[in-house]
Amino acid sequence: MIVPKSRFLISRVDAGSSSAFLVHTDVVNWVLLQEGSGITLIDGGYPGQASDVVESIRHIGGRPEDIQGALLTHAHVDHLGGLVSLSEQYGFDVYMDPVEVTHARREYLQQAGPLDILPIAYRPRVLRWLAAVTPLGVLSRKGIDGAKPFGTRLDLPGGPTPVAAHGHTDGHSAYLVADDTVLVSGDALVSGHPISAIAGPQCISDAFQHDVETARRTVESFTRLDATVLFPGHGPRYDGSVADAARRALDVS
Ligand SMILES: [Zn+2]
Which of 20, 27, 41, 173 could form a disulfide with 177 if both were Cys (CB 3.0 to 4.6 A apart)? Predict the structure, then answer.
């Protein structure tokens, strides 16, 4: 069992009139963008982490009622789960890459199932991870019926810009935030994972990738970005050239 030291760790990057916050937990991360009294949420943790998302918003001086919209990197349960109940309760819309919409509505599921995990399930790290995420709702199949495609311009607090990052799922998206200095990479590029022995920038385990080749091409495309901070979907914040982090990930994974 993974015993969290505290449930989450928050770090921030300021850019002009807005701030971007990485909320890091032992199992998955989400991001808050704050501009004036408005908040944009990027991803929402597991279903069992919805109350932690609310607590993280209060931690930065906001209220869940301030969420003007949410963005999704991809529709896996560890990123979408908390948004299911929060979007219903607080009435905000959840936007994503147009390709990911039907996935978020659960018209199909591109997520590792027991058969994908089976070949690695004997590993102690995988067993500990399963023990940690099962009570958080890893088996939930609930989607977001009202999932919406983002348009060409996102009019949300913090001014996020989508960056196509397909492969981990067909419609996975990353986002540039904080005046394009921070890449919110979702699972396209991570800096750690409970089942990985590697520390630092890496591609997530092939067992979790829907399309490994496309996912690697996405990481190659990140080597052309100028961002200087990485807010990954898993693992701690990474300070340094995101292009270098992408090159390192391609080397080690
Ligand atoms: Zn994930």
Answer: 20
